[in-house]
Each structure stands twice: as structure tokens, then as C-alpha cells.
Write a structure and sequence with these properties.
By secondary structure, the chain is mostly helical. It has one domain. α4 crosses α5. 1% of the residues are buried.
Length: 67
């Protein structure tokens, strides 16, 4: 689950088969959840390291944090 939510790649097929949604909705719903998790983690990093964000710029900070 962690790799599915935080990793850059696709979704774990075993996880997709456990979801009750129709197959065409599974990846879309997980993509929304993945985005929410990543944005929440980014917000935590921004709050913890505001000076670093200011020094390297918001765009670089975000790219670095999400990779």
C-alpha cells in the first residue's frame, strides 16, 4: 500500500483486485487518494522546512519532496 501511494509508478494489481469498485473506477479513485496523501506529506515538509523552501524555491522544493 505504501508503495502504491508514495511511488511514482502504477498501482499494485493485487491491491486493485481487493477494491469493491468497478475495474474502470479503481485506478481513478486510488489516484485521488494518492494525490491527497502526497499533498498532505508535502504540507508537513513545508511546515518543517520553511527556510529550505524559501532558499531553493517552491517549485524545486515540491519537485524534490515528491520524488
Amino acid at each position: 500500500m505504501r508503495d502504491t501511494l508514495l511511488g511514482p509508478g502504477g498501482f499494485d494489481p493485487a491491491l486493485l483486485t481487493r477494491l469493491a469498485d468497478r475495474p474502470e473506477q479503481r485506478e481513478r479513485r486510488l489516484a485521488v487518494y494518492r494525490n491527497n496523501v502526497r499533498q498532505a506529506l508535502l504540507s508537513v515538509l513545508e511546515a518543517a522546512f520553511p527556510v529550505v523552501r524559501q532558499l531553493i524555491g517552491a517549485e524545486c522544493f515540491t519537485a524534490t519532496a515528491l520524488t
